[in-house]
């Protein structure tokens, strides 16, 4: 073990990044600690002063405090899981990944500041984040202008990737998500009338409500007048009463905590009978802790289900539980896949001549090109093919909340392919 | 018709919460002519202290009685903490500048507001927390969590849909306003407060310790704000910025009612609460709900700048 050769370690790395994660997982050296490199001897030992292989700097913009802190820390956990795993097995072509983390508190101005700092001061190769559409759109133009790759793990608004060819995402976009949920409601659940309840301060929520409404009407369903709220609201009973009066069969609420659990609880408190439908923001422990049994029988779309048994997912779950995360959700998984996609692109780009350590701008361009040409990346959230637009081609799953013992658990319902 | 009555009841309950906060603005303004913009932060601190008392309070709250005891302790704690904070704010920030121009005091108050918000971010974490979620875990908290579920749910007397919390809020605010009225109108301390409000110099010449009266006024305002903070914190969730919007609306309520007038604050609070609720009933898009209070403010300032119950003062230049 100790004298493992460079070649062997490279093979390890490539196999992890490209395909056979589970196979490697079985043969993995034991140490669960996240020590960067236990190898003292052989030359490619990463990251020492004066080494020929400088570290690979990747920025991360995440909300680590404030309303969205739960999502930010989950996503960052996923990013770190992948980065540590890559570093433990020799880095990207011998270069260790060095994460530079900025907390944007879910704020657009702080997001823009963070991007400027990461790009200009830290000279990162790529930025992972921000996680919400509104924040991602606040930095996308700058990222494009500066020519630094922006990979948002969970920013689903359609417009994000339209800012340019340096902007990517690891998740599906809202059109696909809204369409999938609307079709599911109409075709599988047989619901014929619905109300959309949108957070008008969130580009994510507005975009989803639009695609849901259009699809539901195109299928032949009736959309009742849309209701709205804004971030920071706490009392939703007036709107919910209006929705109850409209007697819609479904209520689509593509929101986030802290508003989302209040909406769910208040809807149940006033005995609103519509079936609650949500999107990927529902896959979150803040919601299940706060709304509990009130979630029973509601449906939402998610990036993955722990019930699909791909080797990549098994590997991800094993890594998560080694970190003490027993019930990882979309956000961990998409953070993990974002880091994986960037690392694989860096590996491909490393083979290109222009990937010399000196010229940052051309490195970033090479990385962008490599990322855009990823055809079959097997991630925790399934197979990903990157389209020229920066949107991945991938499937989503519909999940349902059901009471399980004292708590509430999401159960897999079906896969929807693009 | 039933929807209309429901909206009225909702409006009255929300309005009484605004009124409880507005009392603090109006008391303080009546006496030192200061609009204490940090008042919303007393409300926020009350919510947090109540939260921590319930979370770490003594006794294993297994029986209904210990639950009731713990709740009373939490209410007392939030009232006391907010009062103490109010007194401290007055002593540290406002008293030293009392002799300067009123604009200085106003700007100081805004500064204190930001300072307290950010201190709370450090002390309590900037992330929103929820009474219900925090109290759901652990055996000792079960009856408490059940109380909170009751508090948030709706009972249906006479076919109306009234949230239990709203009834409790209404009762608590009615009692505290009554107590305040008696205190100000029927006691010696109240007389001293009224005298100080009329003319602080003359009151001092008559032997009233005006510094103490002012401190007491702040304490009273803080007390009501703290209790209101806990009552609404149990209903929704708590975060360091939670005092901002209710504080602003209560300030509007105080101005609409006639700043400086105690019954004015009550009327103003109820008027704002009712207007908001009826606007939604009248099918105003709900996104304009927050604008209603400020629209009323504009109308009142144009038509009756001294407020509904305010008296016109002639400013001596």
Helices, strands, pairings?
The complex is a heterodimer of chains A (418) and B (317).
Chain A: H1 6-18, H2 21-27, E1 56-62, H3 69-88, E2 97-103, H4 108-121, E3 126-128, H5 133-146, E4 149-152, E5 167-169, H6 174-188, E6 193-199, H7 203-219, E7 222-223, E8 227-229, H8 237-246, E9 250-252, H9 259-269, E10 275-278, H10 285-291, E11 299-302, H11 311-322, H12 330-350, H13 360-372, E12 377-379, E13 382-386, E14 392-393, E15 396-404, E16 407-416
Parallel strand pairs in A: 1-2, 1-3, 3-4, 4-5, 6-7, 6-8, 6-9, 9-10, 10-11
Antiparallel strand pairs in A: 11-15, 12-13, 13-14, 15-16
Helix pairs in contact in A: 2-11, 3-12, 4-5, 6-7, 9-10, 12-13
Chain B: H1 2-32, H2 39-56, H3 64-94, H4 102-124, H5 131-136, H6 142-152, E1 154-155, E2 162-163, H7 164-186, H8 188-198, H9 200-205, H10 210-233, H11 244-257, H12 262-281, H13 289-303
Sum this structure up briefly:
The complex is a heterodimer of chains A (418) and B (317). By secondary structure, chain A is of the alpha/beta class.
- DSSP helical segment count of chain A: 13
CATH architecture of chain B: Orthogonal Bundle
Mean pLDDT over all positions of chain B: 86
Query: What do we call the CATH topology of the largest domain in chain A?
Result: Rossmann fold
Structure notes:
The complex is a heterodimer of chains A (418) and B (317). With 418 residues, chain A is of the alpha/beta class. In chain A, 42% of the residues lie in helices and 18% in strands. In chain A, strands 6, 7, 8, 9, 10, 11, 15 and 16 form an eight-stranded mixed sheet that branches. Chain A has a five-stranded parallel sheet with strand order 2-1-3-4-5, with helices on both faces. A three-stranded antiparallel sheet of chain A has the order 12-13-14, covered by helices on one side. In chain A, α3 crosses α12 and α12 (330-350) crosses α13. Chain B is an all-alpha fold and 317 residues long. Chain B has a single domain, classed as ABC transporter involved in vitamin B12 uptake, BtuC (Orthogonal Bundle), CATH 1.10.3470. Chain B has helices at residues 2-32, 39-56, 64-94, 102-124, 131-136, 142-152, 164-186, 188-198, 200-205, 210-233, 244-257, 262-281, 289-303; strands at 154-155, 162-163. In chain B, a hairpin with a 6-residue loop joins β1 (154-155) and β2 (162-163). In chain B, α2 packs antiparallel against α3 (64-94) and α12 packs across α13 (289-303). The longest helix of chain B has 31 residues, at 2-32. Classes of the chains: A alpha/beta (418), B mainly alpha (317). The A-B interface holds A 65-67, 69-70, 105, 200, 227-230, 232, 234-235, 237-239, 241-242, 245, 257-258, 261-262, 265-266, 269-271, 286, 289-290, 292 and B 3, 6, 10, 14, 121, 125-128, 130, 132-133, 136, 152-154, 161, 163, 232, 235-237, 239, 241, 245, 277, 280-281, 285-287, 289.
């Amino acid at each position: 073990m100790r004298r493992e050769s460079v070649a062997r370690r490279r093979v390890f790395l490539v196999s992890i990044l490209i395909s056979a994660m589970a196979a490697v997982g079985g043969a993995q050296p034991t140490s669960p600690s996240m020590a960067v490199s236990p190898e003292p001897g052989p030359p490619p030992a990463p990251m020492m002063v004066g080494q020929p292989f400088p570290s690979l700097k990747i920025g991360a913009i995440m909300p680590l405090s404030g309303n969205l802190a739960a999502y930010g820390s989950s996503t960052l956990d996923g990013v770190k899981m992948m980065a540590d795993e890559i570093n433990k097995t020799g880095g990207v072509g011998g270069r260790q990944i060095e994460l530079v983390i900025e907390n944007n508190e879910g704020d657009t101005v702080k997001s823009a500041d963070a991007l400027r700092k990461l790009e200009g001061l830290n000279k990162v190769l790529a930025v992972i984040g921000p996680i919400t559409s509104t924040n991602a759109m606040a930095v996308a133009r700058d990222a494009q202008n500066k020519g630094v790759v922006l990979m948002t793990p969970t920013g689903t608004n359609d417009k994000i990737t339209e800012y340019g060819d340096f902007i990517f995402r690891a998740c599906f976009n809202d059109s696909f998500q809204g369409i999938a949920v609307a079709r599911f409601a109409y075709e599988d659940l047989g619901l014929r009338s619905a109300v959309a309840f949108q957070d008008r301060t969130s580009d994510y929520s507005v975009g989803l409500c639009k695609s849901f409404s259009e699809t539901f009407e195109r299928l032949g369903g009736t959309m009742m007048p849309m209701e709205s709220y804004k971030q920071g609201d706490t009392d939703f009973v007036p709107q919910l009463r209006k929705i109850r009066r409209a007697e819609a069969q479904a209520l689509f609420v593509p929101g986030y905590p802290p508003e989302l659990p209040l909406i769910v609880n208040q809807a149940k408190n006033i005995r609103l009978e519509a079936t609650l439908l949500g999107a990927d923001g529902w896959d979150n422990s803040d919601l299940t802790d706060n709304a509990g049994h009130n979630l029973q029988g509601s449906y939402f779309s998610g990036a993955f289900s722990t019930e699909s048994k791909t080797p990549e997912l098994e590997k991800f779950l094993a890594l998560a539980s080694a970190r003490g995360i027993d019930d990882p959700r979309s956000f961990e998984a998409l953070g993990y896949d974002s880091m994986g996609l960037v690392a694989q692109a860096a590996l491909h780009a490393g083979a290109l001549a222009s990937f010399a350590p000196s010229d940052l701008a051309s490195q970033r361009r090479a990385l962008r090109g490599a990322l855009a040409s990823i055809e079959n990346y097997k991630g925790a959230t399934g197979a990903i093919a990157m389209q020229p637009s920066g949107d991945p081609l991938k499937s989503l799953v519909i999940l349902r909340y059901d009471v399980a013992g004292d708590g509430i658990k999401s159960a897999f319902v079906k896969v929807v392919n693009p | 018709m039933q929807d209309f009555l429901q909206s009225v009841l909702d409006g009255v309950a929300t309005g009484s919460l605004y009124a409880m906060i507005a009392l603090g603005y109006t008391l303080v303004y009546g006496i030192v002519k200061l609009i204490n913009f940090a008042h919303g932060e007393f409300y926020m601190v009350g919510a947090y202290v109540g939260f921590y008392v319930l979370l770490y309070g003594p006794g294993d709250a297994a029986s209904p009685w210990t639950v009731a005891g713990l709740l009373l302790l939490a209410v007392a704690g939030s009232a006391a903490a907010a009062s103490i904070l109010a007194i401290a704010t007055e002593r540290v920030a406002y008293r030293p500048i009392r002799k300067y121009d009123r604009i200085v005091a106003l700007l100081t108050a805004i500064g204190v507001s930001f300072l307290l918000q950010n201190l709370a971010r450090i002390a309590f974490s900037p992330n929103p927390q929820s009474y219900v979620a925090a109290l759901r875990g652990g055996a000792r908290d079960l009856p408490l969590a059940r109380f909170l579920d009751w508090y948030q749910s709706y009972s249906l007397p006479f076919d109306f849909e009234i949230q239990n919390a709203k009834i409790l809020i209404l009762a608590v605010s009615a009692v505290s306003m009554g107590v305040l009225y008696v205190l100000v109108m029927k006691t010696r301390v109240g007389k001293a407060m009224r005298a100080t409000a009329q003319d602080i110099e003359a009151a001092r010449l008559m032997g009233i310790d005006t510094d103490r009266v002012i401190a007491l006024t702040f304490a009273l305002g803080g007390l009501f704000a703290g209790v209101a903070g806990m009552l609404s914190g149990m209903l929704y969730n708590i975060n360091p910025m939670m005092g901002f919007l209710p504080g602003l609306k209560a300030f509007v309520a105080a101005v609409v009612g006639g700043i400086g007038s105690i019954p004015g604050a009550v009327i103003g609070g109820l008027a704002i609460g009712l207007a908001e609720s009826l606007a939604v009933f009248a099918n105003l898009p709900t996104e304009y709900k927050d604008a209603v209070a400020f629209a009323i403010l504009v109308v009142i300032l144009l038509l009756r700048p001294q407020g509904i119950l305010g008296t016109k003062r002639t400013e001596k230049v």
